[in-house]
Amino acid sequence: MNEQIERRRTFAIISHPDAGKTTLTEKLLLFGGQIQVAGAVKSNKIRKTATSDWMEIEKQRGISVTTSVMEFDYSPSGEPEGGCYKINILDTPGHQDFAEDTFRTLTAVDSAIIVVDAAKGVETQTRKLMNVCRMRKTPVIIFVNKMDREGKDPFDLLDELEQELQINVRPFSWPINQGQRFKGVYNIYEQNLNLFQPDKQKVTDKVEIDINTDELEKWVGDDDASRLREDLEMIEGVYPAVSDVNGPDGLYLSGDTAPVFFGSALNNFGVQELLDCFVQIAPCPRPVMAEEREVRPDEPKFTGFIFKITANIDPNHRSCIAFCKVCSGRFVRNAPYLHIRNGKTLRFSSPTQFMAQRKETIDEAWAGDIVGLPDNGIFKIGDTLTEGENLHFRGLPSFSPEMFKYIENADPMKTKQLEKGISQLMDEGVAQLFVNQFNGRKIIGTVGQLQFEVIQYRLENEYNAKCRWEPVSLHKACWISCQPGYEQELENFKKRKYQYMAKDRDGRDVFLADSGYVLSMAQQDFEHLNFHFTSEF
Ligand code: G4P
Which of 130, 333, 376, 415 counts the highest number of beta carbons within 10 A? Predict the structure, then answer.
């Protein structure tokens, strides 16, 4: 079992839209031998123009269903074929309106690769995703992409990464020039220089040279050669030693420092350096905290939790796939597993795993793997499965939404259908529901406008119910708790703000602040109350 666990690398590639996540994913599949030429994996990005065309979204989402997890065996270059490592890449939606989905996916990974555009540097979404990684102490590697274009100075970029992402960095590869003059990357980790022939389609041969010989001058010219040597000297002087960053007690695994790689995903520059180093230093499955205790991956009994539910694109029958992360033991097809929330024993006759573009029924899976389970409404995000032990995995926080609308019934004959539809869509984690305690009206909170369209479309097509949106002017919803001994202050707050108090789906108190000013005044006036921006505190 330990052998199985140690060879697994379960991670997500995350980025601000357009930084190159899809391109990098595709190149990794190319190296993994999963696809032969680039362009085989369609972007799961929902094009900005398609915001009102749900069928288009649906079609594209269909593609993303099968590419939700991509698995392949990989041996680093120079090592015998045969797949020493088992790679599980968890795909995340490209559109920012589905950021919540990405946050949740991050709960199922052991590490993450963050892609940053060399010209744009750190962008909003990158910052938000990094916050989630920091909260969970997820080790991250940063890939600075698009070095074939004119971008920021690499040293400036490193400073920006440290400041904006609040994490220490350590270059593990270094670019020779950029833009038109980009010649390749020096692999600091392995101490060799790889000059590539750019090829967007295939993996091409590289030229390996020793930078301490005048061969370097011959390949890249005098100026770039001396600049590279100077840069490397500076890096060694300023940043922590590579040996302090990697290794079992290193700064990378503790979430303190992010190794940084430079390259161009589109041109296959620097991608293999990234992958080869990644498989060696990235963590294998780690222990997961349940409410009751810590669960170790090498425990003999199976445990797992559902972190994502994806609806089928076939509108004729509402069937979904629930994605279960195996936390410990061995998952076996047809074995009886306890669904903790409803106390039922379930057997799965057709669990699936996902290859680049196909899915296969599997007989077993190990800690770190993601198993697709057919779901006809039995699962809810965060559900735990075990061999009988009463366990509850935690760590699936809801984040304070950014957009709010009242949801109203537009067809009184279909009230039941609407209730059921809303309830199941919320179970899937499509958006968040709050019920205003003052007027009983239901408020849906989302990260982006697209989610409202998705809800409306799916209610009509899957539940035969109609809804209507009405505006509500809200700034933020935050969960409220009080410091011990200040229960009366909490009660006073709820009385004073009764028009703005709501309950979430688990019956917790939520304060709906209609402006940033109101929120900060409330925080000032009620200093012993805590205002939380994630549901887990
Ligand atoms: P995303 O998933 O993070 O949203 O980004 P994606 O990979 O789709 O890449 C966004 C755009 O950036 C794409 O161009 C892609 O070709 C380009 N790109 C990715 N890596 C590099 C790189 O290393 N160098 C350069 N110059 N461009 C890169 P697009 O025009 O939006 O799409 P497409 O028509 O090329 O598919």
Answer: 130
